[in-house]
Design brief:
CATH class of the largest domain: Alpha Beta
CATH superfamily of the largest domain: Dihydrodipicolinate Reductase, domain 2
Helix content: 25-40%
Oligomer: single chain
Radius of gyration: 21 Å
Strand order of the largest sheet: 16-15-14-13-7-12-11-8-17
Strand content: 25-35%
Order of helices and strands: EHEHEHEHEHEHEHHEEEEEEEEEHHE
Largest sheet: 9 strands, mixed
Number of helices: 10
Structural class: alpha/beta
Distance between the termini: 43 Å
Number of domains: 2
Bound molecules: nicotinamide-adenine-dinucleotide
Length: 376
Protein backbone atom coordinates (compact mmCIF):
# COMPACT_ATOMS: atom_id res chain seq x y z
CA UNK A 1 0.00 0.00 0.00
CA UNK A 2 1.38 3.39 -1.02
CA UNK A 3 1.85 6.24 1.42
CA UNK A 4 -0.52 9.13 0.85
CA UNK A 5 0.59 12.78 0.81
CA UNK A 6 -2.22 15.30 1.19
CA UNK A 7 -1.72 18.63 -0.52
CA UNK A 8 -3.13 22.10 0.01
CA UNK A 9 -2.76 24.82 -2.60
CA UNK A 10 -2.51 28.51 -1.73
CA UNK A 11 -3.02 30.59 -4.87
CA UNK A 12 -5.35 28.69 -7.18
CA UNK A 13 -4.71 30.64 -10.41
CA UNK A 14 -2.74 29.57 -13.49
CA UNK A 15 -0.22 27.37 -11.68
CA UNK A 16 -2.53 26.22 -8.88
CA UNK A 17 -4.84 24.73 -11.53
CA UNK A 18 -1.90 23.16 -13.38
CA UNK A 19 -0.80 21.42 -10.17
CA UNK A 20 -4.39 20.34 -9.38
CA UNK A 21 -4.70 18.78 -12.83
CA UNK A 22 -1.44 16.83 -12.37
CA UNK A 23 -2.61 15.49 -8.99
CA UNK A 24 -5.91 14.51 -10.67
CA UNK A 25 -4.13 12.08 -13.00
CA UNK A 26 -1.50 10.82 -10.57
CA UNK A 27 -2.40 7.25 -11.62
CA UNK A 28 -0.53 7.97 -14.90
CA UNK A 29 2.69 7.35 -12.94
CA UNK A 30 3.75 3.68 -12.98
CA UNK A 31 5.22 2.02 -9.89
CA UNK A 32 5.38 5.34 -8.07
CA UNK A 33 5.89 5.17 -4.30
CA UNK A 34 3.48 7.87 -3.06
CA UNK A 35 -0.21 8.54 -3.69
CA UNK A 36 -0.88 12.28 -3.79
CA UNK A 37 -4.25 13.83 -3.14
CA UNK A 38 -5.34 17.46 -3.38
CA UNK A 39 -7.37 18.09 -0.22
CA UNK A 40 -7.55 21.88 0.22
CA UNK A 41 -7.29 25.16 -1.66
CA UNK A 42 -7.12 28.81 -0.68
CA UNK A 43 -7.62 31.82 -2.95
CA UNK A 44 -9.24 35.24 -2.54
CA UNK A 45 -11.12 35.03 -5.84
CA UNK A 46 -14.56 33.36 -5.64
CA UNK A 47 -14.48 32.37 -9.30
CA UNK A 48 -11.12 30.66 -8.86
CA UNK A 49 -12.39 28.83 -5.76
CA UNK A 50 -15.50 27.73 -7.70
CA UNK A 51 -13.28 25.90 -10.22
CA UNK A 52 -11.97 23.63 -7.44
CA UNK A 53 -15.47 22.49 -6.49
CA UNK A 54 -15.34 19.96 -9.36
CA UNK A 55 -12.47 18.06 -7.68
CA UNK A 56 -13.89 15.29 -5.44
CA UNK A 57 -10.84 15.01 -3.15
CA UNK A 58 -10.94 18.72 -2.19
CA UNK A 59 -12.58 18.99 1.23
CA UNK A 60 -11.55 22.50 2.23
CA UNK A 61 -12.13 25.53 -0.01
CA UNK A 62 -11.31 28.76 1.74
CA UNK A 63 -10.16 32.35 1.45
CA UNK A 64 -8.40 32.08 4.85
CA UNK A 65 -4.99 30.46 4.45
CA UNK A 66 -4.70 29.94 8.22
CA UNK A 67 -7.27 27.18 7.75
CA UNK A 68 -4.89 25.37 5.39
CA UNK A 69 -2.07 25.67 7.91
CA UNK A 70 -4.32 24.36 10.72
CA UNK A 71 -5.77 21.45 8.73
CA UNK A 72 -4.70 17.92 9.61
CA UNK A 73 -5.73 17.01 6.05
CA UNK A 74 -2.73 18.89 4.63
CA UNK A 75 0.86 17.59 4.74
CA UNK A 76 2.36 19.66 1.92
CA UNK A 77 1.47 23.17 0.78
CA UNK A 78 2.06 24.25 -2.82
CA UNK A 79 2.10 28.05 -3.02
CA UNK A 80 1.45 29.82 -6.33
CA UNK A 81 1.03 33.44 -5.26
CA UNK A 82 2.30 36.80 -6.57
CA UNK A 83 5.94 37.33 -5.62
CA UNK A 84 5.42 40.04 -2.95
CA UNK A 85 3.50 37.47 -0.87
CA UNK A 86 6.10 34.67 -0.97
CA UNK A 87 8.07 35.77 2.07
CA UNK A 88 5.16 36.05 4.50
CA UNK A 89 3.32 32.94 3.30
CA UNK A 90 6.37 30.66 2.98
CA UNK A 91 7.58 31.61 6.47
CA UNK A 92 4.12 31.05 7.98
CA UNK A 93 3.93 27.62 6.33
CA UNK A 94 7.37 26.67 7.63
CA UNK A 95 6.42 27.82 11.13
CA UNK A 96 3.27 25.68 10.95
CA UNK A 97 5.48 22.60 10.46
CA UNK A 98 4.08 21.67 7.03
CA UNK A 99 6.23 20.83 4.03
CA UNK A 100 6.47 23.40 1.24
CA UNK A 101 6.60 23.26 -2.52
CA UNK A 102 7.37 26.89 -3.25
CA UNK A 103 7.01 28.73 -6.51
CA UNK A 104 9.80 30.74 -7.98
CA UNK A 105 11.37 33.19 -7.46
CA UNK A 106 11.28 32.19 -3.75
CA UNK A 107 10.75 35.76 -2.50
CA UNK A 108 10.67 39.02 -4.43
CA UNK A 109 14.28 39.98 -3.66
CA UNK A 110 17.49 38.77 -1.99
CA UNK A 111 16.45 39.87 1.49
CA UNK A 112 13.11 38.04 1.25
CA UNK A 113 14.91 34.90 0.00
CA UNK A 114 17.36 35.13 2.92
CA UNK A 115 14.48 35.44 5.39
CA UNK A 116 12.69 32.44 3.87
CA UNK A 117 15.94 30.49 3.92
CA UNK A 118 16.41 31.33 7.62
CA UNK A 119 12.92 30.01 8.40
CA UNK A 120 13.67 26.87 6.36
CA UNK A 121 16.86 26.24 8.36
CA UNK A 122 14.98 26.71 11.63
CA UNK A 123 12.32 24.20 10.55
CA UNK A 124 12.32 20.49 9.87
CA UNK A 125 10.13 20.93 6.78
CA UNK A 126 10.96 19.46 3.39
CA UNK A 127 11.22 22.40 0.99
CA UNK A 128 11.83 22.61 -2.73
CA UNK A 129 11.04 25.24 -5.36
CA UNK A 130 9.18 24.70 -8.62
CA UNK A 131 11.29 24.56 -11.82
CA UNK A 132 10.02 22.03 -14.33
CA UNK A 133 12.21 22.33 -17.44
CA UNK A 134 14.96 19.93 -16.24
CA UNK A 135 12.29 17.21 -16.25
CA UNK A 136 11.78 17.37 -20.03
CA UNK A 137 13.18 14.31 -21.83
CA UNK A 138 15.43 16.66 -23.84
CA UNK A 139 16.79 18.39 -20.74
CA UNK A 140 17.38 15.03 -19.05
CA UNK A 141 19.44 13.97 -22.07
CA UNK A 142 21.44 17.22 -21.91
CA UNK A 143 22.28 16.55 -18.25
CA UNK A 144 23.23 12.93 -19.04
CA UNK A 145 25.43 14.04 -21.95
CA UNK A 146 27.29 16.54 -19.76
CA UNK A 147 27.71 14.01 -16.96
CA UNK A 148 28.98 11.36 -19.41
CA UNK A 149 32.30 13.18 -19.77
CA UNK A 150 32.07 12.72 -23.57
CA UNK A 151 32.25 16.47 -24.17
CA UNK A 152 35.89 16.90 -23.14
CA UNK A 153 36.68 20.22 -21.49
CA UNK A 154 33.66 22.52 -21.28
CA UNK A 155 34.32 25.72 -23.25
CA UNK A 156 30.99 27.60 -23.30
CA UNK A 157 27.53 27.49 -21.75
CA UNK A 158 24.44 29.29 -23.05
CA UNK A 159 21.02 29.10 -21.42
CA UNK A 160 17.89 31.15 -21.76
CA UNK A 161 14.14 31.52 -21.62
CA UNK A 162 12.43 33.70 -24.20
CA UNK A 163 8.89 35.06 -24.45
CA UNK A 164 7.32 37.48 -26.92
CA UNK A 165 3.78 38.14 -25.70
CA UNK A 166 4.82 41.44 -24.10
CA UNK A 167 5.73 42.78 -27.56
CA UNK A 168 2.04 43.65 -27.86
CA UNK A 169 1.88 47.17 -26.35
CA UNK A 170 -1.89 46.76 -25.93
CA UNK A 171 -1.52 43.77 -23.59
CA UNK A 172 -3.08 44.90 -20.31
CA UNK A 173 -0.95 45.32 -17.20
CA UNK A 174 -0.87 42.52 -14.62
CA UNK A 175 1.02 41.96 -11.33
CA UNK A 176 3.94 40.28 -13.14
CA UNK A 177 4.76 43.58 -14.87
CA UNK A 178 4.84 45.80 -11.75
CA UNK A 179 7.86 45.93 -9.42
CA UNK A 180 5.71 46.36 -6.31
CA UNK A 181 4.30 42.85 -6.86
CA UNK A 182 7.05 41.01 -8.79
CA UNK A 183 10.13 42.70 -7.35
CA UNK A 184 12.79 44.98 -8.76
CA UNK A 185 14.41 41.96 -10.43
CA UNK A 186 11.51 41.93 -12.92
CA UNK A 187 11.97 39.39 -15.73
CA UNK A 188 14.85 37.72 -13.84
CA UNK A 189 12.42 36.79 -11.04
CA UNK A 190 9.93 35.45 -13.52
CA UNK A 191 12.18 33.47 -15.87
CA UNK A 192 15.60 33.33 -14.18
CA UNK A 193 15.27 30.24 -12.00
CA UNK A 194 14.23 28.24 -15.05
CA UNK A 195 17.47 29.31 -16.76
CA UNK A 196 19.88 28.78 -13.87
CA UNK A 197 18.59 25.54 -12.28
CA UNK A 198 20.62 23.07 -14.39
CA UNK A 199 23.85 25.14 -14.35
CA UNK A 200 23.68 25.53 -10.57
CA UNK A 201 23.00 21.82 -10.05
CA UNK A 202 26.03 21.00 -12.21
CA UNK A 203 28.15 23.23 -9.97
CA UNK A 204 28.39 26.08 -12.48
CA UNK A 205 27.92 29.07 -10.16
CA UNK A 206 28.71 32.38 -11.80
CA UNK A 207 31.68 34.07 -10.08
CA UNK A 208 31.28 37.44 -11.75
CA UNK A 209 28.88 38.98 -14.21
CA UNK A 210 28.07 41.91 -16.42
CA UNK A 211 24.36 42.55 -16.99
CA UNK A 212 22.40 44.21 -19.75
CA UNK A 213 18.92 44.99 -18.47
CA UNK A 214 16.32 46.72 -20.62
CA UNK A 215 13.04 48.50 -19.96
CA UNK A 216 11.45 48.95 -23.37
CA UNK A 217 7.69 49.04 -22.81
CA UNK A 218 7.05 51.13 -19.74
CA UNK A 219 3.28 51.55 -19.67
CA UNK A 220 0.35 49.33 -20.48
CA UNK A 221 -3.45 49.60 -20.60
CA UNK A 222 -4.84 49.31 -17.07
CA UNK A 223 -7.93 47.41 -18.24
CA UNK A 224 -10.22 50.31 -17.24
CA UNK A 225 -9.67 52.63 -20.16
CA UNK A 226 -6.49 54.25 -18.79
CA UNK A 227 -2.78 53.51 -18.62
CA UNK A 228 -0.63 52.06 -15.85
CA UNK A 229 3.11 52.23 -15.34
CA UNK A 230 4.93 48.99 -16.17
CA UNK A 231 8.24 49.49 -14.37
CA UNK A 232 9.87 46.05 -14.56
CA UNK A 233 12.90 45.01 -16.57
CA UNK A 234 11.60 43.45 -19.79
CA UNK A 235 14.82 41.77 -20.91
CA UNK A 236 17.99 40.62 -19.16
CA UNK A 237 21.22 39.26 -20.61
CA UNK A 238 23.86 38.21 -18.08
CA UNK A 239 27.38 37.54 -19.28
CA UNK A 240 29.04 35.51 -16.55
CA UNK A 241 32.21 33.59 -15.73
CA UNK A 242 32.00 30.19 -14.07
CA UNK A 243 34.94 28.24 -12.76
CA UNK A 244 35.21 24.74 -14.18
CA UNK A 245 38.30 22.75 -13.22
CA UNK A 246 40.27 25.89 -12.44
CA UNK A 247 39.41 27.77 -15.64
CA UNK A 248 37.07 30.70 -16.27
CA UNK A 249 34.37 29.53 -18.66
CA UNK A 250 31.90 31.98 -20.26
CA UNK A 251 28.23 31.36 -19.49
CA UNK A 252 25.50 33.59 -20.92
CA UNK A 253 22.05 33.66 -19.39
CA UNK A 254 19.16 35.25 -21.30
CA UNK A 255 15.75 36.05 -19.80
CA UNK A 256 13.48 37.98 -22.15
CA UNK A 257 9.84 38.96 -22.36
CA UNK A 258 10.46 40.86 -25.58
CA UNK A 259 12.03 38.23 -27.85
CA UNK A 260 10.50 38.44 -31.32
CA UNK A 261 9.29 35.07 -32.58
CA UNK A 262 9.57 33.25 -29.23
CA UNK A 263 6.41 32.04 -27.50
CA UNK A 264 7.90 30.08 -24.59
CA UNK A 265 11.36 28.97 -25.71
CA UNK A 266 13.60 27.51 -23.01
CA UNK A 267 17.02 26.38 -24.19
CA UNK A 268 20.43 25.23 -23.09
CA UNK A 269 23.60 24.70 -25.12
CA UNK A 270 26.92 23.39 -23.79
CA UNK A 271 30.05 23.20 -25.94
CA UNK A 272 33.17 21.20 -25.10
CA UNK A 273 36.45 20.35 -26.79
CA UNK A 274 35.20 16.88 -27.80
CA UNK A 275 31.49 17.42 -28.19
CA UNK A 276 28.44 19.59 -27.70
CA UNK A 277 24.80 19.33 -26.76
CA UNK A 278 21.89 21.62 -27.49
CA UNK A 279 18.17 21.51 -26.69
CA UNK A 280 15.30 23.98 -27.05
CA UNK A 281 11.58 23.69 -26.38
CA UNK A 282 11.17 25.48 -29.71
CA UNK A 283 11.68 22.02 -31.20
CA UNK A 284 10.57 19.88 -28.29
CA UNK A 285 11.29 16.49 -29.90
CA UNK A 286 14.84 17.26 -31.02
CA UNK A 287 18.11 16.81 -29.16
CA UNK A 288 21.23 18.05 -30.96
CA UNK A 289 24.61 16.50 -30.23
CA UNK A 290 28.05 17.15 -31.69
CA UNK A 291 31.18 14.99 -31.73
CA UNK A 292 34.57 16.28 -32.83
CA UNK A 293 35.64 14.62 -36.09
CA UNK A 294 36.62 15.24 -39.71
CA UNK A 295 33.30 16.95 -40.48
CA UNK A 296 31.61 19.77 -38.59
CA UNK A 297 28.32 17.95 -38.10
CA UNK A 298 25.56 18.22 -35.51
CA UNK A 299 23.41 15.10 -35.08
CA UNK A 300 19.67 15.40 -34.61
CA UNK A 301 18.05 12.82 -32.31
CA UNK A 302 14.27 12.36 -32.33
CA UNK A 303 13.13 12.22 -28.71
CA UNK A 304 10.24 10.24 -27.26
CA UNK A 305 8.40 10.49 -23.97
CA UNK A 306 10.83 9.02 -21.43
CA UNK A 307 10.89 11.14 -18.28
CA UNK A 308 12.71 10.25 -15.08
CA UNK A 309 9.51 8.69 -13.67
CA UNK A 310 7.83 6.01 -15.82
CA UNK A 311 4.22 6.67 -16.91
CA UNK A 312 1.52 4.82 -18.80
CA UNK A 313 2.21 7.02 -21.85
CA UNK A 314 3.79 5.33 -24.87
CA UNK A 315 7.52 5.90 -25.20
CA UNK A 316 7.26 7.25 -28.78
CA UNK A 317 4.63 9.88 -27.93
CA UNK A 318 5.28 13.63 -27.68
CA UNK A 319 5.78 15.43 -24.38
CA UNK A 320 3.93 18.60 -23.31
CA UNK A 321 4.00 21.13 -20.46
CA UNK A 322 1.54 19.19 -18.23
CA UNK A 323 3.75 16.10 -18.57
CA UNK A 324 7.04 17.59 -17.45
CA UNK A 325 5.31 19.67 -14.77
CA UNK A 326 3.94 16.37 -13.45
CA UNK A 327 7.41 14.80 -13.62
CA UNK A 328 8.70 17.68 -11.48
CA UNK A 329 5.92 17.11 -8.93
CA UNK A 330 6.82 13.41 -8.96
CA UNK A 331 10.45 14.36 -8.20
CA UNK A 332 9.28 16.51 -5.26
CA UNK A 333 7.20 13.76 -3.64
CA UNK A 334 9.76 11.03 -4.38
CA UNK A 335 12.55 13.06 -2.77
CA UNK A 336 10.33 13.90 0.20
CA UNK A 337 9.78 10.16 0.59
CA UNK A 338 13.51 9.34 0.25
CA UNK A 339 12.91 7.62 -3.12
CA UNK A 340 14.60 9.97 -5.60
CA UNK A 341 17.23 7.27 -6.19
CA UNK A 342 19.81 9.41 -7.95
CA UNK A 343 17.39 11.20 -10.25
CA UNK A 344 17.54 14.95 -10.82
CA UNK A 345 15.71 16.74 -8.00
CA UNK A 346 13.69 19.95 -7.72
CA UNK A 347 15.43 23.26 -7.05
CA UNK A 348 16.69 23.37 -3.45
CA UNK A 349 16.33 26.34 -1.07
CA UNK A 350 20.15 26.79 -1.31
CA UNK A 351 19.91 27.04 -5.12
CA UNK A 352 16.97 29.45 -4.90
CA UNK A 353 19.01 31.68 -2.58
CA UNK A 354 22.00 31.50 -4.95
CA UNK A 355 19.79 32.62 -7.83
CA UNK A 356 18.85 35.74 -5.84
CA UNK A 357 22.53 36.54 -5.28
CA UNK A 358 22.96 36.39 -9.06
CA UNK A 359 19.93 38.61 -9.75
CA UNK A 360 21.05 41.09 -7.09
CA UNK A 361 24.51 41.23 -8.70
CA UNK A 362 22.82 41.85 -12.06
CA UNK A 363 20.97 44.88 -10.62
CA UNK A 364 24.25 46.12 -9.15
CA UNK A 365 26.06 45.64 -12.47
CA UNK A 366 23.37 47.61 -14.30
CA UNK A 367 23.51 50.41 -11.70
CA UNK A 368 27.30 50.71 -11.80
CA UNK A 369 27.74 49.73 -15.47
CA UNK A 370 30.52 47.41 -14.39
CA UNK A 371 31.48 43.79 -13.82
CA UNK A 372 30.36 42.59 -10.38
CA UNK A 373 31.92 39.78 -8.32
CA UNK A 374 29.23 37.56 -6.81
CA UNK A 375 29.45 36.49 -3.20
CA UNK A 376 27.09 33.76 -2.06
N1 LIG B 1 6.69 27.06 -12.75
C1 LIG B 1 6.21 27.78 -13.75
O1 LIG B 1 6.40 27.45 -14.91
C2 LIG B 1 5.41 29.00 -13.47
C3 LIG B 1 4.64 29.58 -14.48
C4 LIG B 1 3.87 30.72 -14.16
C5 LIG B 1 3.93 31.24 -12.88
N2 LIG B 1 4.71 30.66 -11.93
C6 LIG B 1 4.80 31.19 -10.56
O2 LIG B 1 3.62 30.81 -9.87
C7 LIG B 1 3.24 31.85 -8.95
C8 LIG B 1 1.82 32.29 -9.29
O3 LIG B 1 1.77 32.66 -10.64
P1 LIG B 1 0.44 32.43 -11.49
O4 LIG B 1 0.82 32.62 -12.92
O5 LIG B 1 -0.24 31.17 -11.09
O6 LIG B 1 -0.39 33.69 -11.00
P2 LIG B 1 -1.96 33.95 -11.08
O7 LIG B 1 -2.13 35.42 -11.01
O8 LIG B 1 -2.57 33.21 -12.24
O9 LIG B 1 -2.51 33.26 -9.75
C9 LIG B 1 -2.28 33.79 -8.47
C10 LIG B 1 -3.51 33.48 -7.63
O10 LIG B 1 -3.26 33.92 -6.30
C11 LIG B 1 -4.47 34.44 -5.79
N3 LIG B 1 -4.16 35.31 -4.65
C12 LIG B 1 -3.62 36.56 -4.68
N4 LIG B 1 -3.43 37.01 -3.43
C13 LIG B 1 -3.82 36.01 -2.60
C14 LIG B 1 -3.83 35.84 -1.20
N5 LIG B 1 -3.39 36.81 -0.37
N6 LIG B 1 -4.31 34.68 -0.69
C15 LIG B 1 -4.74 33.69 -1.49
N7 LIG B 1 -4.74 33.78 -2.84
C16 LIG B 1 -4.30 34.93 -3.37
C17 LIG B 1 -5.09 35.16 -6.97
O11 LIG B 1 -6.49 35.36 -6.79
C18 LIG B 1 -4.78 34.20 -8.11
O12 LIG B 1 -5.81 33.25 -8.31
C19 LIG B 1 4.31 32.93 -9.09
O13 LIG B 1 5.28 32.75 -8.12
C20 LIG B 1 4.88 32.70 -10.48
O14 LIG B 1 6.20 33.16 -10.64
C21 LIG B 1 5.45 29.54 -12.20
Amino acid sequence: MNNIAKVGIIGGGLMGKEAASAFGRWFALNDYPVAVELSAVCDLDEEVLGWYEQIPSVQLITSDYEQILASDQVDVVYVALPHHLHEEYYIDILESGKDLLAEKPFGMNLQAAKNIYGAFEASSSFVRCSSEFPFLPGAQRVIAEINSGRMGDIMEIHAGFLHASDLNPQKPINWKRQSQFCGEIGVMGDLGIHVIHIPLRLGWQPRRLYSQLQKVITRRPDGQGGWAESDTWNNATLTTDVNIEGKDIPMTLEMKRLAPGQKNSWYIEVLGTEGGVRYSTKDTKTLWTFRRGEEQAWQQIDLGFQGPFPTITGGIFEVGFPDYFMQMLAAYFAEREGSLNGRFGCLTPQEALMSHHIFQAALESKRTQSVVEITY
